[in-house]
Amino acid sequence: MNTHQKSFYSLELLYVIGIIAISFSSIFIRWSEAEVSVIAMYRLYLTNLLMLPLAWKYRHELFRLTGKQWLLMAGSGIMLGLHFLFWMNSLRLTTVASSTVILTLEPILVMLGSFWFFRARANRMMIVGMSLAVVGSIAIGAGDFRASGDALLGDFLSLLGTIAVAVHMLFGKHLRESISAYVYNFWVFAIAASSLALYNVGNGFTFTGYAWREWGLFLLLAIVPTLFGHYLFNWLLKYINATAVSMAVLGEPVISSILAWMLLHERLTVVQLLAGMLILCGVWIFIRFGSDFKKPVSAAGDAELSKAG
Length: 309
Prior knowledge:
This is DMT family transporter. It is found in: Endomembrane system. Its main location: membrane. Belongs to the EamA transporter family. Keywords: Membrane, Transmembrane, Transmembrane helix. This protein has 309 residues and is mostly helical. It has one domain. The protein is built from 16 helices and no strands. The protein has helices at 3-23, 25-31, 36-51, 59-62, 67-90, 96-102, 106-118, 124-142, 149-175, 181-202, 212-236, 242-246, 252-264, 270-289, 291-294, 299-308.
């Protein structure tokens, strides 16, 4: 197996790890009793705290961004903050399956944005894989969608969160062409957390007085879905196109729904399980036949990948 093949399979493995990691997010959020904006704020601030030991290594790059890069970074961070605010609120109003299934619209929005801004292209098999995954994702949440009430509001909030994270992903793709994963993630997480902090201050939400159980959940959210999920996907943006990275969200409804069935006792039907199989099939087709996934990474990419491993 040559170096490029090893790099490709390493990227696949990291991609799968990221999908599993982000799937735990909805479970931890449901377990917490704090305001969702507070959960998101501490999730991101704690992630930055965990990243600090490496700050010295990147000390020069951290403060050498251009004015345009700072502007795009601010936009990316604010969009990430809005994603957490909208989507995490949706989990309080509707089921995990319904909330996460709406996130499957993200790759479609990212693909359209990539085509418009970056002239990216998707081949026929990528579109087939995406279509299968979207159909399967819709089937998972079909039994939980409601035409009115809190569930409808939850669905709408999840849609707003999906739009926000798609914009965040497009900003990130542009920035990752010239900025390391560490610097991008550090500032984006810090900006998103600070935006949420301002929101919390404006709404009079308390920053202290939480039980140790809540702090434990904040930390789990920082480690599992943020570092092993969002950070990892932002790192992968340098080697995989934004549409391919955003496809990871299509695997989330499958694993999240199973976890919700096991840990939250939410109903999971045979139809939803079969739909989950369809999603995984679609994701596999997209990864295996996606032209950007099969494109060898650069020598510099190989070096960074070997360091990460």
